[in-house]
From TrEMBL:
GO terms for cellular component: membrane. The keyword Glycosyltransferase does not apply. SUPFAM superfamilies: NAD(P)-binding Rossmann-fold domains. Belongs to the short-chain dehydrogenases/reductases (SDR) family. It comes from Microlunatus endophyticus. It holds the Pfam family adh_short. Coiled coil: none annotated. GO terms for molecular function: oxidoreductase activity. This is Oxidoreductase. The keyword Cytoplasm does not apply.
C-alpha cells in the first residue's frame, strides 16, 4: 500500500498523534477523515484544516459507530483504510481506584477498536486494497504499573490485532499495529513522584512516530514499533 491515493479514517484525530497522522497522510495526497467527541475540537479542526473532514463519534457506542459508518460510506464510498487511534490512559492505584471507572479504558482502548473494525469490515472487504491499523503502545509489551488497565487493554488490542491479521490473510485487508513509545505528546497524568520516574524515559517526537508508521505501512511491516518500543518488547519477553 503506497498511501498516496487512499481514503483514510482516523479515530481520535483531533489532537496528538491522530492529528499528526492526519496532517502527514493528507500531505501525501490521501483523503483524510478524522473523528472526535469534543465538538469544539472538531470545529477547530474543520477551521484549521479546510481540506479534511471531521465527524463526531463515540467509539464505545455501537449506535454512534453505525451512524458514522452510514455517513462515511455514503460520503466516501472509496474509504479503504481505518486507523483505530482513539485512546485513554488513566493513572490507577488499585487500592483507591473507583470500580465504576475500571471499564472506561477497556471500552475505549480495546472494545472501541474491535467495534469500529467490525462495523467497517464488510465495506473494507469490498475494496481492492484496504487496511486496518490499530494503535497499541510500547507499554502493551512491558506493563506499566502506574497505568495497569491501560497496559492490559493495549496488550489485549495487540492480541486482537494478531488474530484479525490471521483471519483476514488472503483477503484485500491488511492488518497493521503501531505501538508508539513514550512521545512528546503527554498522555500520563500521575502523581509528581510517578512523573519523576516516567521522566527518565526518552520521548519520541510525534512527527517521527508518524513518519515511521507511514514507512512501515509502505514496506508491509505489519508490526511497527518505533524508537523505544522495540526494546520494551524485548524487555517484556525477558520479564515473562
Ligand atoms: N501520547 C503518547 O505518548 C502515546 C504513547 C503510546 C501510545 N499512544 C496511543 O496513541 C493514541 C493517541 O494518543 P494521543 O496521546 O495522541 O491521544 P490524545 O491526544 O489524548 O487524543 C485522543 C483522541 O481520542 C479521542 N477519543 C478519546 N476517547 C474517545 C472515545 N471514547 N470515543 C471517540 N473518540 C475518543 C479524543 O477525542 P476528544 O478529544 O474529542 O475526546 C482525541 O481525539 C492512543 O491510542 C494512545 O493510547 C500514545
Amino acid at each position: 500500500m503506497d498511501l498516496s491515493n487512499d481514503v483514510i479514517l482516523i479515530t481520535g484525530g483531533t489532537s496528538g498523534i491522530g492529528l499528526e497522522m492526519a496532517k502527514q497522510l493528507a500531505a501525501l495526497g490521501n483523503t483524510v477523515i478524522v473523528t472526535g467527541r469534543d465538538e469544539d475540537r472538531l470545529s477547530q479542526f474543520r477551521q484549521s484544516h479546510p481540506g479534511l473532514s471531521a465527524y463526531p463519534v463515540e467509539v464505545t457506542d455501537l449506535a454512534s459507530v453505525e451512524t458514522l459508518y452510514r455517513q462515511l460510506v455514503s460520503d466516501f464510498p472509496d474509504l479503504n483504510v481505518v486507523i483505530n487511534n482513539a485512546g485513554l490512559m488513566q493513572s490507577i492505584d488499585f487500592q483507591s481506584f473507583a470500580p465504576a471507572k475500571v471499564a472506561d479504558e477497556v471500552a475505549v482502548n480495546l472494545a472501541g477498536p474491535i467495534l469500529v473494525t467490525q462495523v467497517f469490515l464488510p465495506h473494507l472487504l469490498k475494496q481492492s486494497e484496504a487496511a486496518v491499523l490499530n494503535v497499541t503502545s510500547g507499554i502493551a509489551y512491558f506493563a506499566f504499573d502506574k497505568a495497569p488497565i491501560y497496559s492490559a487493554s493495549k496488550l489485549g488490542l495487540h492480541s486482537y490485532t494478531q488474530t484479525l491479521r490471521k483471519q483476514l490473510a488472503g483477503t484485500s485487508v491488511k492488518v497493521f499495529e503501531l505501538a508508539p513509545p513514550r512521545t512528546t505528546k503527554p498522555m500520563f497524568s500521575g502523581s509528581e513522584e510517578d512523573n519523576r520516574q516516567v521522566d527518565r524515559i526518552p520521548k519520541m517526537p510525534i512527527d517521527q512516530v508518524v513518519s515511521t508508521m507511514i514507512s512501515g505501512i509502505r514496506r508491509n511491516r505489519y508490526e511497527i514499533l518505533p524508537g523505544m518500543s522495540k526494546l520494551l518488547r524485548l524487555l517484556g519477553k525477558a520479564r515473562l
